[in-house]
Each structure stands twice: as C-alpha cells, then as structure tokens.
Design brief:
Number of strands: 3
Radius of gyration: 18 Å
Mean pLDDT: 75
Number of helices: 7
Strand order of the largest sheet: 2-1-3
Structural class: mainly alpha
Helix content: 40-55%
Length: about 130
C-alpha cells in the first residue's frame, strides 16, 4: 500500500519529499522535543482553555483530523506515523501542533504504566536476569 503523500508527490515529478514538506509548512523539527516513538497520545475529550472556554480547532489539515480520529484510543507516536504512512519526523511536527492547540494529550510511557498500576519491578528483574543468562 503506497501512502497517499507519495502518490501525490509522484504526480508532481518532484520527488517523494514534496508532500511531507508541504504538510509541515516547511518546518523540519517539532516545537516540542519530548515526543518519543513510545509517547502515548490521546485525543482530548472536552478540550478547554485556562478560562474553561471550549477550544475549537482552527483550520485542520486532513492529516491532523486523521490523527485526532486515530488517537481516540491511546496510540504511540510510532503507531500514528505508521497509520498515516508518513515519516516519524513529519508526524511529530503534526502531533506537536495538536498538543499545542490542546486537542491532543501526550503522556510519557512511564506515567501510563503508573496509571495502569505500575510496573512490577520484581518481574522486570526476573526477565532481565533471564535475558542475561541467554
């Protein structure tokens, strides 16, 4: 399956990086540097600003809307990039846009593990020891 952005770029005859460059409006790095491949993302249920006013999304690109739909269930950055068929670097820029607007929530994997009851350190140590013996 060919990602939609590659098909459009091939029609241009300008190469496969034209469309991602356009999607990010020329930006090559996200404003946030804390998004890793395993950062968990979730669409905000009822996004509100600091005054309690509902946040209405501005003009969203189709890719932004796809991300919000995908993240209704928690998804990692790598899963979102794969689902969109876009490079991770491009996806991180789009994700940072949505987080900045308050439409998407980003959580480090450790906070997700703690919310789920925490990692059992004894089990992790046993797995580590087993791997060392291999």
């Amino acid at each position: 399956m060919t990602p939609h952005w590659e098909e459009e770029a091939e029609e241009d005859g300008a190469g496969s990086m034209v469309r991602p460059y356009t999607i990010t409006r020329g930006r090559t790095a996200p404003e946030r540097d804390d998004l890793t491949l395993i950062t968990v993302l979730t669409t905000a249920q009822d996004p509100r600003d600091e005054h309690g006013t509902p946040i209405l999304p501005g003009r969203l690109q189709p890719e932004h809307r796809l991300i919000l739909a995908r993240c209704r269930r928690p998804s990692a950055v790598a899963e979102v990039a794969s689902g969109l068929g876009l490079p991770v670097s491009v996806t991180k820029i789009l994700l940072a846009d949505l987080v900045a607007q308050g439409l998407l929530l980003a959580r480090a994997p450790l906070s997700v593990a703690r919310a789920a009851g925490g990692a059992r350190m004894g089990l992790l140590a046993t797995v580590r020891d087993g791997l060392r013996r291999l």
